[in-house]
Amino acid sequence: MCCRLYFLLEDSGVVESREWFALLIVSMGQVDPAAHTIKSHGASLARNHLRDWLILLLLLVIEIVLFAIHPFYRFVGRDMMEDLRYPMKDNTVPVWAVPLYAVLLPIAVFLLFYMRRRCVYDLHHSVLGLLFAVLITAVMTDAIKDAVGRPRPDFFWRCFPDGVEVYDKWGGVVCHGKVGDIKEGHKSFPSGHTSCLGFLSLYLSGKVKAFDRRGHVAKLCIVFLPLLAASLVGVSRVDDYWHHWQDVFAGGLLGLVVATFCYRQFFPPPYNDDGWGTYAYFEAMEEESRANSNRNNVNSLGVQGTEVEVVNQEAGGRNGSDAFTHFSIYDHIHSPTLEAMELGHK
């Protein structure tokens, strides 16, 4: 249609250059130069999800409270101490490192994909989904920790740092170690270090189209990298005697389930043909497609109006008249004659 319009206008002398015609097509809506960037859609997208960000703040407050309160001090008897005499060691993966690999590293990956595709929907929803996954997992993990109060493998040395055992008349321990060490010693189940990389694995599986049925096993290696890192972190928790293996297994399973639910809030399944994008992106594309379709309908009517103008101009030339009958490109919308012609054409 565009080519037909160009040559029609060129023959009639209305168009003198292709640059002018390109500007005309852009103004008529044939080309949509806008992109879904932070500058163009970021503010409106954040406003639409303002409640979600407020809920994140609420989850953060709840997590701080759960971390600060004392856990349930479960009964620990003399016989139970046989399995809790592992030495106290420093963390191979310290607590301050958890936000680095669980939050900042995935966000850095999200930013790399944003720099390539310039899709603010993908960036916003991936960050929002990640934070939801991390905070919901943290809240659930610490709530279970406080409720269960399972002693850590090194609980003996937390309770009796000098090695002198003291028990009450029921055979329960009477700890005389540091309050902070004893409090932390009752937070073994489940582990929180291993529950934070499932979202990144799901995100990568969608972006590289790991399940496109083409058999590229190398894509699975990319998907498994975050899971491998989480597994190694879990192994370090057992090696440092901060957790039992059941704690690590339960924490990893909990984190993976929560990450899957949070990921599916914003993204199709990774095995879906549209798994590389967000639901919001495809909805925006559909809306723009409908808008472009409406503009194209108006533009097609504009082409018919232009053809009528050229025909009238040629008829005037054959009658020896230099008069130029001018019709606006959109004047035919209100023209009963053209509406009748259009209905007859249909």
UniProtKB/TrEMBL annotation:
GO terms for biological process, alphabetical: phospholipid dephosphorylation; phospholipid metabolic process
Membrane in keyword set: yes
The organism's place on the tree of life at top rank: Eukaryota
Entry keyword Membrane: yes
CDD domains (alphabetical): PAP2_containing_1_like
Gene Ontology molecular function: phosphatidate phosphatase activity
Keywords linked to the UniProt accession: Hydrolase, Membrane, Transmembrane, Transmembrane helix
Pfam families the record matches: PAP2 (PF01569)
Entry's localization field: Membrane
SMART domains hit by this protein: acidPPc (SM00014)
GO cellular component: membrane
Start and end residues of each Phosphatidic acid phosphatase type 2/haloperoxidase domain: 127-263
Membrane-topology descriptor: Multi-pass membrane protein
InterPro entries per UniProt: PAP-like, PAP2/HPO, PAP2/HPO_sf
Transmembrane segments: 53-73, 93-115, 127-144, 217-236, 248-266
Recorded family membership: Belongs to the PA-phosphatase related phosphoesterase family.
Entry protein name: Lipid phosphate phosphatase 2-like isoform X1
Native species: Senna tora
